[in-house]
Amino acid sequence: MKYYLISGEASGDLHASNLMAAIKLRDQQAQFRAWGGDLMQKQGAEIVKHYRDLAFMGFLEVVLNLTTILRNIRFCKQDILQWKPDVLILVDYPGFNMRMAKFAHLHGFKVVYYISPQIWAWKKSRVHAIKKFVDKMLVILPFEKAFYAKYDYAVEFVGNPILDALPKEPLDTNQFRAENKLDNKPIIALLPGSRKQEIAKMLSVMLKMVDQFPEYEFAIAGAPSIEDDFYFERMATTKVVLIKNNTQKLLQASYAALVTSGTATLETALLNVPEVVCYKGSQISYQIAKRIVDIPYISLVNLIMNAEVVKELIQNDFTEQNLKTELNKLLSDTNHRTKMLLEYQHLKTVLGEGGASAKAAAEVLKILKT
């Protein structure tokens, strides 16, 4: 069978690659063509466009890059028609993928959506398009099944793929420190995001913590698609280590973390690392989002638990002083740390067992047989 996958960011590349691996176990003749990244390529996908060329975040940024986005949409449509896949698998990335779902459906292709757009947060009207153009929606957050049920649309909760991607063995901390030239101080991980726009905004404030907490070692989790020099330019006057392609091991070795809102906030919690969630976008994008987004929290941890498990410093609250205060709580307040870690255990219970990739692959094959 021929599988065409579209993912627009690093987390989607990871989850799509694991889905591909699970599909190959069930379909030895599987052929993959994809918009994605290095992990999908390693699983055998022919990469049409890399996600690093697709990562536009925020309302203003999308408008400024609209010509490029529209050109990509036209090219993708032509490529799908030419390759004629047996199924189109869309992985998150809603602004682009919703257009592809409609196009593919109207041209007779089967459409599976893996990792739902966050329509429960904004643009709830998109549910009608999903019902019309998506043959099967595979969701990864427990509350999403109930959300879709309100609209009389049956979706499949396959579990969260982050559980499958977690390390299976404990970390040899001494070896990790030696390999990355880290000293013996407790480590604070900095996860400033995966796109240049957000890294530039987030890292400047995060790095101000280095001098505030000299008894700790700071290490940046570098995004695989971002060149080292982009980080080094911002680290020039600060003693901090850059660690590329090893975020999970860095988190395993860390005592606390400062994390840009996104999938990484959930991954950090599942690895039992107390965290502060941070986010700052352009002022225009933030003002627009504030008026249309209908959710009480921004981090996946808090959304899943429907409570403030981790502190969120968003937009104007993301300041040096606020970050110092919240980080100090993680490092010095034993009760605060203990409570957060207990909530993390509850979070794991809510998310359920692993096996999301295998369950999703089985659903894709089931669609192909109908």
Radius of gyration over C-alpha positions, nearest whole angstrom: 21 Å
- Here the CATH topology of the largest domain equals Rossmann fold
The CATH homologous superfamily of the largest domain is named Glycogen Phosphorylase B
Mean pLDDT: 90
Q: Judging from the principal axes of the Cα atoms, what is the shape?
A: globular
| CATH architectural name of the largest domain | 3-Layer(aba) Sandwich
Describe the largest sheet: 7 strands, parallel
Number of domains: 2
> CATH class of the largest domain, please?
Alpha Beta
The helicity comes to: 40-55%
SS strand fraction: 15-25%
Kindly report how far apart the N and C termini lie: 14 Å
Query: Helices and strands: which structural class?
Result: alpha/beta
**Unreliable segments (pLDDT under 50, ≥5 consecutive)?**
none
Q: Give the spatial strand order of the biggest sheet.
A: 3-2-1-4-5-6-7
SS summary, helix count: 19
Q: Oligomer, anyone?
A: single chain
Number of strands: 13
Task: Explain this structure.
The protein is of the alpha/beta class and 370 residues long. The protein folds into 2 domains: 2-159 and 355-369, 3-Layer(aba) Sandwich (Rossmann fold), CATH 3.40.50.2000; 173-351, Rossmann fold (3-Layer(aba) Sandwich). The protein has helices spanning 10-26, 38-42, 59-64, 66-83, 94-106, 126-133, 142-149, 161-165, 173-179, 196-206, 209-212, 228-235, 247-253, 263-270, 283-292, 300-305, 320-332, 334-351, 356-369; strands spanning 2-7, 31-36, 46-50, 87-91, 110-114, 136-139, 156-157, 187-191, 217-222, 241-244, 254-260, 275-279, 311-314. The strands form 2 sheets. The protein has a 7-stranded parallel sheet, sandwiched between helices. The mean pLDDT is 90.
